[in-house]
Amino acid sequence: MWSQSFLASLHFSSPPKLSLFSPSSSSSSSCFHPKIRKRILCLTQNPSSKTEINLSKRHLNLSILTLFFNGFFLLDKAKSIEELQRYTDSNNGFTLLIPSSYTKVEKAGANALFEEPNNGSNNIGVVVSPVRIKSLDQFGTPQFVADKLINAEKRKESTKEAEVVSVGERSGLGQQVYEFEYKIDSTRGGIKRVFSAAFVSSNKLYLLNVVHSDKPENPLDSSTRMLLEQVLHSFDALPLT
C-alpha cells in the first residue's frame, strides 16, 4: 500500500514551478536568447498588447488613406481654379474667366468664342447686342427670360428636346446678372448642358453661353461642372471709364 504521508503529499504539496525565464529552470529553457525570453515574457504577462498594436496599426493605415484621398480632392479642386485665366474685351466692355486649354476662334455673330481643343462642341461664346432698355429687369424676370431662351432653342430644327434646369440671379458691377442652366437634346451633337448668363449695361445686352457635352455614356463630371460654373459666375461688365 501507498503510505499515508505520500498520498497526503499528492493532494497538499505545491507542484514545482518551472519557468523558462528563471535561472533555476531546466537546461532546455536556457536555449532561448535573453532578448527572445524578454519578448515572450512581455506577451505572456500582457496578452492584449499584441491586439492593441494591431489595432493601432489599423487606425494609422485608415488615417493615411483618409489623408491620401482628401489630398487628391484638394488637388483636384485647386486644379480647377488654376486652369482658369482672365479674358477681357475692352472694346465691348466685358470680362470673364476662360479655361486655359481653350483656344479663341473667329465666328460670325459672336463677339468672342472659345473652343476646347479637338472638341469644338464644347465651347464658350459671348454675344453683345444694342438694346433700348437700361436694365434686364425692364425686359422681365429671370424666369421670363429663361422661358424666352428655351423657346428660342425649341424653335430650332435641330432641337429634339429642351428643358430648363435652374434659374438664378446675382449682383454684377452695377447691374443684375441673370443665370440659367438648361439641357438640350439635339441632332447636332446629342445631349448638351448649357450655362447662360445675361445682363444689360450701357444699353447693350450681354449674353454668355457655356456649352458642354452631357451624353449618358459620358456625362458631365463634377470637376468639369465646377469649372464651368466658375466661368458662368465670372461673367461681368467692365467698370465705366
From TrEMBL:
<dbReference type="Pfam" id="PF01789">
    <property type="entry name" value="PsbP"/>
</dbReference>
<dbReference type="GO" id="GO:0015979">
    <property type="term" value="P:photosynthesis"/>
</dbReference>
<dbReference type="GO" id="GO:0009654">
    <property type="term" value="C:photosystem II oxygen evolving complex"/>
</dbReference>
<dbReference type="GO" id="GO:0005509">
    <property type="term" value="F:calcium ion binding"/>
</dbReference>
<protein>
    <submittedName>
        <fullName>PsbP C-terminal</fullName>
    </submittedName>
</protein>
<feature type="domain" description="PsbP C-terminal">
    <location>
        <begin position="83"/>
        <end position="236"/>
    </location>
</feature>
<dbReference type="GO" id="GO:0019898">
    <property type="term" value="C:extrinsic component of membrane"/>
</dbReference>
<dbReference type="InterPro" id="IPR002683">
    <property type="entry name" value="PsbP_C"/>
</dbReference>
